[in-house]
Design brief:
By secondary structure, this protein is an all-alpha fold. 78% of the residues lie in helices and 0% in strands. The protein contains 19 helices and no strands. The longest helix is centred in the N-terminal third of the chain and has 42 residues, at 30-71. The protein starts with a helix and ends in a 9-residue tail after the last helix. The relative contact order is 0.18. The mean pLDDT is 91. Bound molecules: aspartic acid. Aspartic acid (ASP) binds at residues 266-268, 302, 305, 345-350, 379, 382-383, 386.
Length: 419
């Protein structure tokens, strides 16, 4: 059995165990609550997420350094960077436009009950200027704080300098290449624990899940879910086929393991090691491209999040009886696309971004309190869409630059991990 299949089986069993605990109300038993859901399940799940996060900064730093030195050419780097940025922004804008249109047509939130006790405490979000200034920082500080944009900039600059530094540069490049291999080995080792961790994470999520909460917000919940699936299964495959000629079915099949990790962790950042491995080993994307586009995408490209924000904005407007003008809807597209740039791919990041969007169009941010209760499952799903978007753009850009090995892409067993 491949590791991915095993993870999926454990995931389903975890969800069933969690639901059983929830429906039988065993989850409210103090012993089960303390020692099982918030004890064993929580600890096992968190240990796994922490070990993935542990590898993100070293992996991004080293692999992007290697990628830059392999390209050698700043012009090539500029062209990959430029294309990637444009695709990331355009796909986010498309996601928002579709979400706003569908949610408006369906009238999501019309007549919804606004609970009087909604209590939402806004979180601090960064201004655009702060985001721009944060891309250059003391590298040690940036690494410690997980500021990926600054780590990306530092790795590229260091990589470019190494290619210009003659003999000394070559020695550093050799060392980093070996280091890169060692880190990828560690990624593989940690991935083997995924089935048990995913079981624990899903069991906890479903044990804690308020099934009733979903039924009262069913319109919002299923609109977001439906649009997320549409984006992953229709929009990306179409773009992939039209812009690169690559087979969308192969792409979807090979995305499975990264998607499962994103779903389990709710964090594009924590999934970087797996997404990167999927791109290079399974799809044949050259390391020089994937080492840049994947961490960059995990930070700035969040199409799934954009979909949630589009639907949430319409939902909150309708629930509060506010009519949004076309100009305001356009503002939402622009605001949410820009907001996605500086927000890290961590759980619930999308909610912080939503605050800015709502403020921009004058909607009450307390509205977030209404949908927050059912966000966990949507966060998991949109994270999976976010990383699928990063990967689709990566394949399109790599193909356009002749940096995708078609034979590896077409080989169903390339890079497959057997358990
Ligand atoms: N959890 C999402 C991600 O990591 C961000 C969000 O929408 O909250 O991509």
């Amino acid at each position: 059995m491949s590791l991915t299949k095993k993870i999926i089986v454990f995931m389903v069993v975890g969800a069933v165990v969690g639901l059983a605990l929830n429906l039988s109300q065993l989850n409210q038993d103090p012993f089960v609550d303390t020692y099982l859901t918030n004890g064993l399940f929580y600890v096992v799940g968190q240990l796994f997420i922490l070990s993935l996060k542990m590898m993100v900064v070293p992996l991004v730093f080293v692999s992007l350094f290697c990628g830059t030195t392999a390209l050698r050419d700043p012009a090539m780097l500029g062209s990959i960077g430029g294309r990637t940025l444009v695709f990331y922004l355009v796909t986010t804008a498309i996601a928002l436009a579709i979400a706003l249109t569908v949610a408006t047509l369906l009238g999501v939130g019309v007549g919804a009950d606004i609970p009087t006790d909604v209590n939402y405490i806004p979180k601090e979000s960064r201004s655009f200027v702060e985001v721009i200034l944060s891309v250059i920082d003391n590298p040690i500080k940036a690494m410690a704080e997980g500021n990926l944009l600054a780590v990306i900039v530092f790795s590229i600059l260091l990589g470019l300098s190494a290619t210009m530094a003659g003999k000394a540069g070559e020695q550093v490049i050799g060392l980093f290449k070996s280091f890169n291999e060692v880190i990828m080995k560690l990624v593989m080792l940690i991935m083997h624990f995924a089935p048990y961790a995913v079981f624990a994470i899903l069991a906890k999520v479903f044990a804690d899940l308020g099934v009733e909460a979903i039924s009262t917000l069913a319109g919002y919940f299923f609109t977001v879910l439906g649009l997320l699936l549409f984006h992953a299964l229709v929009v990306y495959p179409l773009l992939l086929k039209l812009l690169s000629g690559l087979n969308p079915l192969t792409f979807i099949k090979k995305m499975q393991s990264a998607v499962v990790f994103a779903f389990g962790t709710s964090s594009s950042n924590a999934t970087i090691p797996v997404t990167m491995r999927t791109m290079t080993e399974r799809m044949g994307v050259d390391k020089s491209v994937a080492s840049f586009t994947i961490p960059f995408g995990a930070t700035i490209n969040m199409d799934g999040t954009a979909i949630m924000q589009g639907v949430a904005t319409v939902f909150i407007a309708n629930a509060y009886g506010v009519d949004l003008t076309n100009l305001q809807l356009l503002m939402v597209v622009l605001m949410a696309t820009m907001a996605s740039i500086g927000t890290a791919g961590v759980p619930s990041a999308g909610m912080v971004m939503l605050q800015g969007v709502l403020l921009q169009v004058g909607l009450p941010i307390e509205g977030i309190g209404i949908i927050l209760g059912i966000d966990r499952l949507l966060d998991m799903t949109r994270t999976a869409v976010n990383i699928t978007g990063d990967s689709a753009v990566t394949c399109i850009v790599a193909k356009s630059q002749n940096k995708l090995d078609q034979a590896v892409f077409d080989d169903p067993d390339a890079g497959l991990i057997k358990d």
